[in-house]
Amino acid sequence: MTEQPEYDRFVQERSPRLLRVAYLMTRDWAAAEFTIEDWLAVTSALGADDLVLVKTNAGRFNPAMVPGVGQTETLTADSLSLLNAVHDDTVAQFLESHPDWVA
Fold it and tell me: Rounded distance, CA 46 to CA 72, Å?
């Protein structure tokens, strides 16, 4: 995991861009708070160093039988916790306790 001073420097250097991206990535598309052009303009500035890949379900399959549908893929309780962490802006803390989820 990243040392805190390095993380703080990363956020300070990229904060305006990251905050704009975070805002656009967590908005309700149906609410039409921004256009697709806004989204493309902000996200096009992202580079590979700005992204972290996270594996849902710890990178494993989690099949379940659903009556009338058949076998489907479901989210584990930990994956649902990850989604809550996205909502609460606590993904860094989630990943500290789930380092094997970082791809």
Answer: 33
